[in-house]
Amino acid sequence: MTAALGHVHLVVSDLDRAISFYTDLLALSVTERQANYAFLSFGDRHHDLALQARPDASSPPPNSRGLYHVAFELDTPDELRECYEWLQDQAISVQPVDHGISKSLYFDDPDGNGVECYVDTREDDGEQWIGHNTRFDPLAL
């Protein structure tokens, strides 16, 4: 069997707000919108991210099982710095973490869904993560 991740589906409380957040942050495009659903794409597929509005949905309790975060890989350190600057402009709390093999920004979307934007910093494909987690300055990228 060969498989690939098809898309991520997030429940949100305000569809318009979520669409604005993800299209502004990641340059996703809306490919379709039906009732309380929106489908967003990076361009190669119908959708990479599905958003479903359920204004009455509750958030999972802290430390519960389930999706921890969805991660988006960016191409360059400059893009990661620009992402950080955009998040700062939006007054979104960000935790920058250098994993040794990647530099990551962790934050929540407006509905509290965990999001990571990162750039892979491995110099060769054999490099493995060894538990390295330190803070870094995204503006220095």
From TrEMBL:
Domain VOC: 4-120
Example of a GO MF term: ferrous iron binding
Pfam families registered for this protein in UniProt: Glyoxalase
Protein family per UniProt: Belongs to the extradiol ring-cleavage dioxygenase family.
Entry-linked InterPro entries: Glyas_Bleomycin-R_OHBP_Dase (IPR029068), Glyas_Fos-R_dOase_dom (IPR004360), VOC_core (IPR037523), Xdiol_ring_cleave_dOase_1/2 (IPR000486)
Species, as recorded: Halonotius roseus
This protein's record includes keyword Isomerase: no
Full protein name: Biphenyl-2,3-diol 1,2-dioxygenase
Keywords linked to the UniProt accession: Aromatic hydrocarbons catabolism, Dioxygenase, Iron, Metal-binding, Oxidoreductase
Names of the cofactor(s): Fe(2+)
